[in-house]
Fold this sequence. Notes:
The chain is α/β, with parallel strands linked by helices. The chain is about 30% helix and about 20% strand. A hairpin with a 5-residue loop joins β12 and β13 (about 345-350).
Amino acid sequence: MELNGYFDPVSLERPDFEYLEDNESFSHHISVHTPDQPIRELDKHQVAIVGIPVDSNAFIKGSKDAPDHIRSKLYQLRKINKNLKIYDLGNLKNGGSVNDTYFALRDVVLELKERDMTTIIFGGSQDLGRGVFLALEKHEGLHQVLTIDSMLDFSLKEDVLNSRNYLNHLIGPATEKNFSLTNLGHQACFVTESQIRQLENSYLESIRLGDVRRDIELAEPLVRDSEFISIDLGAVRHADAPGSSTPSPNGFFGNELCQITRYAGLSEQVSILGFFECNPLSDINEQTSHLTAQAAWYFMEGLSHRIRENPVDTPEHIKKFIVTLNAAGHDIIFHKSTLSDRWWMEIPVKNPVSGDNFFVSCSYEDYQQASNQEIPDRWWRFLNRLGNEME
Length: 391
């Protein structure tokens, strides 16, 4: 597919201040689609940066201006490992309607996945995730989506798509065989009891902000299993991200967001990372754009250290632990990597794509819980969801 027709080239003014010498900065060690340099030799690269300056269906306008602000801050940061080849494709051209943008993004994501490239999206409003969902649906299997959001962006009442209900696409029965959803960082004051019930009834989950922040490392297994991670900058507290579309005094700290995105970079499953709802109109000294750029940088830094490691592809590096649950009358099989000490649980449901059982990332705490004769919530949730879907 010819991608030049999908993108406007990058055109940025030189910043007034630079942190590093030119030969050390990010912008001097990547390929960039410019007016003089069209997109070419894409197969030599592992990462593609895509800007989408669209907020037509945003609940609050302004995020359409974010991609170039984020890009400008990213370009000033330190270069990534030279072995990680990065291509900034520019900004997706604005179609005749927002639906045209969704389908254009679908085409781009499909093309980049075909080339085995990781996609980083700078939005725009979070409803742009619909374009990613449309792409993932084209591939067989269960696609795990992780959102990082202070709110749950689905509604049992609204049908017209916007940035506050775009997850309706994943919650309904029509797509339950295609997607599994986890949200990190919701704040209880922003969600309804009916939303939580809807997730529970669908065997999906959202982890409260306080629970994640109490031990940020517990987010790693949830991040590790995800194929698409969608970040609403409103999940970060106002003091660290004043320029989000829906700022709040509470939320993740900036360094916590960067730690989560580095986990995402280390995961071999994460192939699409999106940053949304950064609103330069309300930002202070471009602080939110700068934080977004740093979070993207830490994702790529983690990606440069990514290794293939899972119970199916690298069994030589995996130790198996079998826990017998007396009350349940069956076993739970755990797998631990000897390379990184990361853990997985085996779900006794066949994956129709691989032919093996499903494997779900977990923590050592899950293993301890099972050893104490308690069924881990995550294992039980996936067993019910996958078992129902495979019937």
